[in-house]
Structure formats: structure tokens, C-alpha cells
Amino acid sequence: MKIVTIIAFLLATPIFSQQLSPEVALQLSTLPLKCMQQEFPNKLGQVVANTSELQSPKQLHPAFYGCFDWHSSVHGHWSLVYLLNKFPNLVNKSEIVQKLQQNLSKQNIAAEVAYLSKSHEKAFERTYGWAWVLKLQHELDASNQPFAAELSKNLQPLTDLIISRYTEFLPKLVYPVRAGTHNNTAFALNLAYDYAIFSKNEQLRNLITDSALRLYWKDANCPLSWEPSGTDFLSPCLEELALMQRILPSDNFIKWTEKFLPQIFPRDFALTTAQVSDRTDGHLVHLDGLNFSRAYNFYRIAKPYPQLFAHLKTIADQHLQFAMVSVADGNYEGEHWLASFALLAYQSMD
Q: Which residue in 325, 303, 346 sits closest to 86, CA to CA?
């Protein structure tokens, strides 16, 4: 009863903290926790080859059927593993671990591998969902929690398949996707690159580096003033900037940035937070995610360059504070996924 009372109180309280506290962590954990095994409503990204494939979300995706869509389910699982890695004594830990173990079983992941191995599903969740699988694998591999080793081993076959998908697809990608939504190429390469570094996968790291240079090296004058588009949850300019920060030596990155996004250097640079007119609209609420994604990219860019970019941290703080009040607002359209983006912002401060 005590845990229920605490969670009910937290859910009723708007949350913001400059650092991820146990109280904020608990509130954020409740959002993926309550939807990771909620089958409906559900949005399937399915290509149907014949009537035998007309099955329920849970039958099609026994590991990742909750939280409205496949990718949101994957990053909801990441959120919970990340939170337990940060705060091993969360009061709802036993429930989290039980649900993680139930969903990420060897049998369930084998079914996900079988689904993604269909010849007509090679583009399933390309490349957004792919990236989140690697992010989840990264978090499980990095964990010292007793439950994590088995789940990491269970997930690895799906991760291996995703890596093979990257290896096959990236050389074919002549032009990057610069959208502010799921198909954004730079976002997926950012998460994949982090996993490649952590896992010491030099082949994947080199593939991403070569692809990024091929796709983005000649870019200049990114039109940040054109952002956001109406339903963005990613900033095309900032995701690309963050990718090039990862792969370029420091001096080269600064020189490239001077051509690509010169407007961020002046200390009076400002960026207005994105406004959401209707949080019950599943597309318009994307803009809450954009505020989080701007925050995590600005934190990441500012940290190694305090003399050049300290002012970007202030902008990141403003975006994080503005967006946090809407994370747990009672609307499933945002609650099924926004906690993960809030946590990306907090993680980028580490």
C-alpha cells in the first residue's frame, strides 16, 4: 500500500529537477511500467503477406507489444533498465524486474527475431526502432544488476540481426533522411555509434563513421530557423551536429560546426521552446519530445566545450524544465513514450 500511495502522489505532482533524483526517477518509471504490457490501443507497422499474419500485437511481438507501438515499447524497456542502473533501490524495483524478465525472455526475443527475419519486413522499424534495440542492449550490457546478464544474453540475437541490417542498409543509403521524426538518419546513427563504442565493435563503428562523413561532411548553413516542423520530436540540425561531434576530432568538429551551424556560437543565441497546442493529439504532442531532444543535444555539445558553448546548457535547462511538466499529464498520447526522452536529457548531463 505504501508504494501505491507514493506513486499516486508523484503522478499527481508536476516534476522537474536539474538532476535526476530518486523521486523523479520513480515517477518516470511508472510511465513505461504501466504501458509495457498494455496491448491496446496499438499501432502496428506491419506488412501483411497473407491472412496468416493477421494476428494480435502480442502474438506478433510478444516482447514489444505494449506502449502503443514497437519502438516505444523498446525504449520503454530501456528506460526501466537505465533507471534501475541509476537507482538500484527504487521502491517498485521488484515489479520492474518481474515485467522485464517476462517480456525479454529467450522465447519472446526469438519470436521478435523471426518476425524481423521475414523477407518482406527488412524495413521494419528502420532505423529508429533499430537504434533503440542497440540502446537497450547497451544498457543491459553495462548493468551490474543481477537480472541483467540473462536478459542481455536473451536480447543479443535481436541485436545481432539489427547490426546486420545496418551493415546491409547504410551503404545503400545515398541520401540521409533529414526529417524531424522517426526516419531521421542521424538520430539512429548516434545511438548505434554509442553502442559500437561501448561494445568495441570496430566494424560497426567504422561503418557509421564512413557513412556519416559521406552523408554529412559537405553540409553547411543548416536552417535551424526552419525548425520545428509541425510534428517534429527531433531536431534535424542538432541530431546531425551531435553525430559529427561523436565522429570528428575536436578541432575538425569546431571547424565543421562553424560552417554548419554558425549561429550557435554567439552567447546571445536563443531558441524558443516548441509549443504544444493539443496534448491529446498523438502527432502534435511530438513537440514535447522535441524540447527534450533539443535539451539532450545541447547538454552533450556544451559539456566538452565550456568556453565556447556554456550558453547552450542554459538553453537546454530551459527546454528540459518546460517539457518536464507535461511528462505525466494523464494523456496516453505522450505518456507512452516521453519518459524515455526525458531520460535521454538527464543521461546527457552525466
A: 346
